[in-house]
Design a protein that fits this description.
It is a single chain. By secondary structure, the protein is α/β, with parallel strands linked by helices. It contains seven helices and five strands. The longest helix is centred in the C-terminal third of the chain and has 25 residues. It is globular, with a radius of gyration of 17 Å. The N and C termini lie far apart (67 Å). The structure holds 4'-phosphopantetheine.
Length: 178
Amino acid sequence: MSEVAHARVAIIPGSFDPITLGHMDMIRRASRLFDEVVVAVLENTSKKPWFDAEGRVMMVQHETADLPNVRCVRFSGLLVELVEKEHARVVVRGVRGGSDLEYETVMARMNAHLRPGLDTIFLPSSPDLTHIASRLVREIASLGGSVEGLVSPKVAAAVRRRADERRAESAAAAGGAE
Ligand code: PNS
């Protein structure tokens, strides 16, 4: 087997809308456990993202720039196909608590059904980060709250800008509807 075939490649998939300090903790820890970590940004999430795929990838790339064995790709379609393409051995997902575990276990088993032998490793979130979720970051920003301490200062600025844009968009839509 070649050197590449021996490399332990892990995939961390997600929407990253936006990347949070919780994601960063997981990526950093995975980068110490595996030879290579591929952060895979789902292009078309059914959740109608705040940031387009390009913006989400740019944020991930910026936040992980100091981690030499981490790279970021965007993907659509089945995760198992990306796993195959990247010659990855495992998928890594963060787990904050019981409901995450339940949801993630079903996904892990489904991915193993689609690609027998594929394992998912769950990383328990660090105790001081268990309250962080991208959905809550978006909600807080949309209601004018501070997202400091939940995302990096650079991502916080992007989130604030996007929240302002969205407010302007809905004000314009409401004005147009009158
Ligand atoms: O950050 P998220 O939104 O919790 O990530 C969800 C993600 C991207 C891991 C999941 O939606 C996914 O893997 N989508 C790809 C489509 C797929 O393979 N579906 C079958 C998996 S059970």
